[in-house]
Amino acid sequence: MPVISNKKDWETTTRKQVRKLGKGWTIRKASKSDKISLVIREPNKPFQEIVLPFKWSEDQIGKGYARVRNIRALMVDGEHTLKQAAKLAESDAPKLVEKLNWDEAKDNFKIYKIKFGNAIKETQWDKKYEPVLTDAIKLLTSNRPPTDPAKLIDKCIIKHDAGSRSREIKVGVLWQFLEYCFQRENFPASWLPKTDRKTHIGRKPADWESRSKDAVTDQEIINLINNLPDQDKNIIDAIKLIALLGLRPIELKHLSVRIDKETNEPYWWCTYQKKSSKGTTEPREIDPLELVDSEGNIQKWNMLNRWQLKDIQLPNLDGVGGAAGCLRDLLRSRTAWKSLDEIVKDRGENLGLYSLRHSYSVRGTARNIDSGSLAESMGHEHRTHEEAYQKSSKATRRAAFKKAQNQLERSVA
Hints:
By secondary structure, this protein is mainly alpha-helical. Helix content is 49%, strand content 9%. The chain has 17 helices and eight strands. The strands form three sheets. A three-stranded antiparallel sheet has the order 1-2-3, covered by helices on one side. Helix 4 (102-115) runs antiparallel to helix 5 and helix 9 runs antiparallel to helix 13 (335-346). It is elongated and about 100 Å long. Mean pLDDT is 86; it is low at 1-5 and 92-98.
């Protein structure tokens, strides 16, 4: 005779779901009431059981399972016994994740970031926000979700190097998201990060090798330009503009020449506005800093007049990776760029397109231009300039001290 089961489908389904939450976890009808009983039988651990305030019935089993998930979330790190976790869950403690609709919050956060406040482009969302928030939602809706913001953040960033820019960006995104959830989605205050961001970002290990780009000398830039073939005229002009004006590569697409209404003199103008957590940069006038070779000859490239005459044709800057990616791909195959890269590596530094922008900063500092004026011309805050941009190189440092020594010797002669 076949075995006849009296178990109903909802009973079987829910028991399966509970068993997935943890080894030895199950539910049953309480022996002395019609309530749901949660049972935990783990190897080499005491038997645990608690009766939940929900009836063993089809219409309340969903609420019972939600409570079990919350209890599991509170016990996952071994911080609470079953009874402690059940009491916290019953008091609707703010750590609970079951009642919080994280998927909906993420969708609303995307709309907020793209349409309101310091709005970002959808491409920026896709690149910086979507990946880490997708990881976060996956964790928060799993069988064993993190129970507080610190644990969530750490689990989302652990695969990235301590102190790295990628980890810093992801911490910032998660911070924004959790603050948004509290302020606009009415999530409990326990999901507001209370830790110091720096503790999540961490510090680079002692043997870490910097990937940031270093300034190169004017002569090295001149050599690079002179060693590129004539057919690379559009690449040469792009390099000249970045070096002369201290541009971000993308700003080549936002460059123009205007005429001063008072002096009738032409000047460089950039309409690019960089958006970040610190705010949005403003369109700006750019002051050129001409390069000088090792023999003291000023490089008169006449770029402003050539621009007005439409004599400058830049390479395609709309491919994969944007303007920087397009230029990088073009330069990597050039012998002149490879040679300069080897020279820079030999002194323990890194070459990139931003090396040209850093060189502008070094050049300006060496010519006694104050950092505030340099920051304004380069299109970032004064604090950013002080924290992130080179103000000297080995060559300019040596020259500065040599000049100071010569002045001292002349003063006492």
